Amino acid sequence: MKTTCNESRRTTLKLGLAAAASAAFSASILSTGRAAAQQKQPAQPQNADANTAAAQTVGTKQQPFTFDALSARMQAKAKEDYKAPESSLPDVVANLNYDQHRAIRYRPEKALWRTEPVEFHLQAFYPGWVFKDTTTIFIGTDGVFQQHVFDAADFEYRPPLDPSKFQSLKLPGVAGFRIHAPLQRPDYFDELVTFLGASYFRALGSGSRYGLSARGLAINTATSEAEEFPRFNAFYVDQPTPADTSIRLMAELDSQSLTGAYEFIITPGHTTTIDVTCRLFPRAEISRLGIAPLTSMYTFGENDHSDHDDFRPEVHDSDGLFIIRASGEEMWRPLKNPKTLALSYFQETSPKAFGLLQRDRDFTHYQDTEARYDLRPSLMIEPQGDWGNGTIELVEIPTDSEANDNIAAFWVPADKPKAGGKLEYRYRMDWGLRTEKPTLLARVSGTYVGVGGNAAQASESPKSRRFAINFEGGAIHNLPADAEIDPQIDIPKNARLINSSLSRLPGGGWRLSIEIEREDSEPVELRVKLSMLQRIVSETWLYQWTNK
Known about the structure:
mainly beta; 16-stranded mixed β-sheet; 5 helices; about 40% strand; globular
């Protein structure tokens, strides 16, 4: 993907902050109420085999290394005490700063499979800067995997670096890797997916730019306990063939509280899909286990822009959390940049889908020619099989910088994992500009919040707020202005509805305006949907109005 220098810097910073575990998700948030995303990541586990430059072989023709074999290995490892890695990077690599690390690039001509007629290329990321821990990459055919040892000569060392200081170095491993595929045109290989830092990864569909990230797992995020950041210590990538339209890889995950085996099947397209199977083996009881965690950025938008002196109307990678419940009800929760840490919980039994979306695709709503937030991908999670009882948790952390990822969402199973147990979760990830399926329901296209009272004599009382919710699309989009549409407004006991009105939007769609007055200082959880002829005709709008 071609990017400007500023956009490349912003993306690299975000990837680096992910590797540093973006302390916005550390337990210190609970006491400080601020996202300190530059804190150093705790020491993370590393595959002992990665400390040698000698190539290793895993699996044989007689006993192929399968996903079941990897799972058995990680289950056995969970019975051992956790061992933190010891950094084995040469000083000249370990002490690289941001600009020096950014001056090191993988040579495109060295990409794996570049000379072969396949749809995938692989490039590695150099260790150093915040990427202190390395990972090992194995390439396999028919279940026999050979470690690929990346040499210093695979990389280009540009000014201000002196290449002679690096050419003789033996690397213990790499920081991560990226896979390229022809997303836009058949003769150019775009970045498709990146695995870099702890268990972070991100992917692209056609026409999108890097935005939100995913993680293999979240442990004790936004709890009183120290958050853990499991990492992928080794990857096993199937050698692609000319007939392959997907690429498969497996990964080892390790952390203080558990081990895990992961399988990813990645299929590029307008919407890129990643089919994930994860098998987890706890070493200890875990207070909060986050399955299929998503990480994004929301600095300000249409519903909370007043405190930001910025020429851009909106700055965010995602603008809402979307949930499809087991009952089929579809819910939209606009994101916020709160004054203090905000947590929202959505209890469910085996939800059909959830994800962080960037619904607003209008460039004029962002006015950023470098970041192009209108092209950031949405990401939907579709659970496969029965996930049972649990909660979709949304974490919103205050931030004053768009370099900080301050939003997280994940599934928390109702039962806490116990030591010696085994868990398996399967899910499909959809990455792209459009990940929502067509529907006859009207969608929320905008949420606008301001002071309540008369527009000419606006009240300064913090107890009253006006919410304007735009609904567009669906079966009611082009109905006449006198259509009998019934707003269903659910107001909690700690607030009261002052007034409401429903009006036709120019060009199609409807606006519901409600004025709410709070009764106490507790968060006010609002819920709104539209009905007609006793049938629901819109998705459900959710909002958490906090007093701070």
